[in-house]
Amino acid sequence: MAEPQTTKGRATRERVIDTAAALVFERGVAGTSLDDVRASAHVSKGQLYHYFADKDDLVHAVVERTIEQVLAAQPELADLSSWTAIRRWFDALVDLQRARNAIGGCPIGGLASELAKHDDDARLRLADGYARWEEPLRRGLERMRAAGKLRHSADPARLATATMASLQGGLLLTQTRRDTAQLRLALDAAYAYLRSFAT
Question: Tell me: the pLDDT tens digits for 137-156?
C-alpha cells in the first residue's frame, strides 16, 4: 500500500504496526487477527484497510518492524571489533532475556518458525534480517583480522553465521526451558569457538 501523506496518517500507520508487532510477539501470527489489531490500536476497519491491503501486508510490515526493534535493542552491535566488545554483547543478550523472564525467545526466530515455510516474501525479509544482525560481527571480526587479533585464515562471514546459529539455539532453549543459563552456555561456546581463531 502507498505510504500515508499526512503526519497524522503516518502516526496512525506506525501505531497499527507497533500494536500488531506486540500482539504477534505475544500470541504469534496465527493467534493475532486483524480485528485484534484494530481493537488494540483503536482504529476503524476502514482505516486498517486504508493502510494495509490484507493480513499478509500487515504481517510483512510487522516483520520489518520486528527486525528494526531487535537490532535497536542491541547498541553493542555498533562496535564488535574486540574480544571485550563481543563479550559485552553476549552479556547484554543474556541480561535482556533475564529481564524478560526468559519468555518470548527471539522475535525474529518466532516469526521465521511461523512464516518461512509458506510465505516466501516473509522468509526473504527474515533472512535479510538475520544477515543484518550478523553483519556487525562480521565487520568487527574483519577489523580484528586486519589488526592481527584474528588469524589470517579465519573467515569472518562463516564465524558470524556460526555465532548466530549458537545464539538462536540458545534463545530457543532459554524460551523452552525458561532458563537463561541455556543462552549463557550457547554464547560461552560461541565465544570459545571465536577465540580459537585468535592469534
Answer: 999 999 999 999 999 999 99
Q: Could you report the per-residue pLDDT of 152-178, keeping only the tens digit for each?
A: 999 999 999 999 999 999 999 999 999
- Bridge partners (DSSP) of residue 150 are 198
Interatomic CA distance for residues 64 and 109, integer angstroms: 13
What sign results for the dihedral spanned by CA atoms 64, 105, 112, 21?
A: negative
Domain shared by 85 and 129, yes or no: yes
Q: Write out the H or E segment, with its range, that includes residue 136.
A: helix 120-146
Model confidence, pTM: 0.90
- Length reported for the chain: 199
Same domain, 121 and 91: yes
**DSSP β-bridge partners for residue 198:** 150
Distances (CA, A) of 186 to 15, 42, 81, 162, 193: 36, 41, 21, 11, 11
